[in-house]
Amino acid sequence: MKERVNHAIELFDQGFACSQSVLGAFCDQYGLDQNTALKIANGFGGGIARKQEVCGAVSGAVMTIGLQYGKKDASDSESHERTYQAVQCFCDEFTKRNNSILCSELLGCDMPTARERGLFHTSCRMYVQDAAEIVEELLNEG
């Protein structure tokens, strides 16, 4: 496994949210310090503040892709399209591996039940790993 993927898993194992773990593993290569990245990504964990919408690991990956390809000029349609293309590729691969990008579908239960079943330490950890692996592959290709 690659260094950034390992770092994402380490962050998750330390108690950071899935979203924080993925963005936190890649942020430094874009000049974003880890503390700031962890703060930015915090609210996206648990499918956006435990609402079980889009998986936090997916959100962390989308933020990372934005750091790589996102536009800084409103008229930069090329960067805008490249970002959307990369996010779509990411979502397609994540869905191929896990059948969904939605936290509720990935866990198959509500948050209290997921906690009782230990899914954060098993399933969520795997989603963090998958998200980090896919992002790393995409960024290396691009």
Describe the structure.
The protein is built from nine helices and no strands. By secondary structure, the chain is an all-alpha fold. It has one domain. Helix 1 packs antiparallel against helix 2, helix 2 packs parallel to helix 5 and helix 5 packs antiparallel against helix 6. The radius of gyration is 14 Å and the shape is globular. The model has no long low-confidence stretch (mean pLDDT 96).
Structural class: mainly alpha
Largest sheet: none
Distance between the ends: 20 Å
Q: How many alpha or pi helices? A: 9
Compute the CA-based radius of gyration. Answer: 14 Å
Order of helices and strands: HHHHHHHHH
| Strand percentage | under 5%
In short:
The chain has 142 residues and is mainly alpha-helical.
Please describe the topology of this protein:
Blueprint: H1 3-14, H2 18-26, H3 34-41, H4 45-48, H5 56-69, H6 77-98, H7 103-107, H8 111-116, H9 120-141
List keywords for this structure.
single chain, mainly alpha
